[in-house]
Here is the input.
Amino acid sequence: MIIFKENELDVKTYLALRKAVKWKKLSYKQASLALENSIYTLVALDCGIPVGMGRLVGDGAVICYIQDLIVVPEAQAAGIGGQLVEMLIEYTESIRMEGTEMMLDLMCAKGREEFYKSHGFLARPTENLGPGMIQYLNDRR
Here is the structure.
């Protein structure tokens, strides 16, 4: 049975889950600061073993981002990712000020667009919205 814990994602688990899906390696200090500055985190546990996580960042008033959504390969296609996304959406809705509109954004991995569309997200570009853009800042500049 999958159990979800709110705001209990620790650095060791975060780094292990990132490694399990072959994401870029972060330093312990980077990961620690990232979690500290998160608005909200979730960790999915199967019999006490971390199998997924979600992390929300942003200003909590105008915009939030689903920054990280991870489900380890052996637990994918079991609905855990969908549950994480829905919980992140629900949390964002709970902090949205009444009478306001808030953006919930994400940058999805190539090929995952349909998954996020099924949870109400729009793929960009659209007629009115340009494509998402990114810039990597590092020591090689």
